[in-house]
Each structure stands twice: as C-alpha cells, then as structure tokens.
Amino acid sequence: MGMAVGGADEYNSEINVTPMVDVMLVLLIIFMIVTPLLQQGVSVNLPKNMISPDEDGDIAKDTSVVVAIPDNNNFYIGKDQYPLNFLGEKIKTLMKDKVPEKRIVYIKAGIEVDYGRVVEAIDTIRKQDIEKVGLVADKKKGDKPAASE
Known about the structure:
The chain is an alpha/beta fold and 149 residues long. It has a domain at 57-135: 2-Layer Sandwich (Nucleotidyltransferase, domain 5).
C-alpha cells in the first residue's frame, strides 16, 4: 500500500482569495498615493456666477500662472505660498519667456476674501507688465443664460 503525498487525491474546489486580496491592497495603496497628486494648486471656495462666459482652456495647463487667494492673508502660486510683496517677483520670473499674447495671470479668490485684497493682488500683477488678468469663478450647472431681447 502506497502513501499519498501532498494531501488527498481529490480536487480542491475552494477559492484561494489570498492573491486577490494582495492585488486589491496594492491597487488601494497606488490610488491613495496618486489621488492627492492629481489636485493642482490650492483648493479655494470659488464664487458662483450667474452668466458664465466661455471657459478658457489655458487655466488647466501646467504652464499657466494661477494665483490662489483662499483667505485674506495667503497668496499661492501652485501649492507654494508667497507674501504679497514677493508675489510680483515670482510672477515676473514665470512670465519672462512668454509671448505678450500669452501673458495672462488667473486669480482664484475665495468667497470670504475681501475685495481690497483681490485688488492689491491685481495691482501687484499689473506692476509686472501683465496686461491680462483673469478672474476664475465656478460655473453654475444647469443654468442657461437668458436670451436677450
């Protein structure tokens, strides 16, 4: 009589879930690392406008300069914080190689930011020979502009 090595001669019909759990954990870790990297700049609670003009596609480009003002005391370019007096120097270095038609700076200011702080930022930008300043607002979803008579 021979001895069976390695278990019984029957087929094993149970699912081995260990490799599946390993793959799912690796995917979870990858998504946890990649998701924060997808956000660009600083998140700002943008005001909603009533009639939205056409959205400028240059805002989302990596080469565009977006100044975020989440509150009255902080100014960001990308994720880097700058005081107002150094903001102009940074914008000047970012814009020095751009053609005059593409020299535009976008401002994302939060709802709670004072109007005066936004004007100070615009003045600082204009002192760097920037003619175009874009103000960013959230587009209202579902609303269509009323037809003018």
